[in-house]
Amino acid sequence: MGVLCAQITPLEGEGVSMTESYSGEFYCVKCKAKRQATGQVVVNDKGTRMAKATCPTCSTNLNRILGKAT
User: Fold this and answer.
1) In terms of pTM, does the model score above 0.90?
2) Which residues are registered as beta bridge partners of 18?
3) Cβ–Cβ < 8 Å for 8, 36
4) C-alpha span between 58 and 11 (Å, rounded)
């Protein structure tokens, strides 16, 4: 099971912005193995939360679907 973390980062010229990160298991299609990685959580056009990271072994982009944003 993965871990969700929220980090508050002040942006220049704006108020306070909150970014969310996900630390856990991703499946690498190129390596064909599960990898531990930490990635940023984004929301796609359909409203689904996804974690995006990079494979520590082969540097391929990793995606993990987390579910609907609330």
Assistant:
1) no
2) 8
3) no
4) 32
Read off the pLDDT of residues 43-57 as tens digits, 9 standing for 90 and up: 999 989 999 999 999
Three-state secondary-structure class, residue 17: strand
DSSP β-bridge partners for residue 7: 19
Residues 56 and 48: their CA atoms lie apart, in Å, by: 25
End-to-end CA distance of the chain: 20
Note the pLDDT tens digit of each residue in 8-48. Answer: 444 454 444 568 999 999 999 999 999 999 999 999 999 89
Q: Where are the domains of the chain?
A: 26-33+40-70
Residue 21 CA to residue 3 CA, distance in Å, equals: 8
**CA–CA distance, 26 with 70 (Å, rounded to integer):** 22
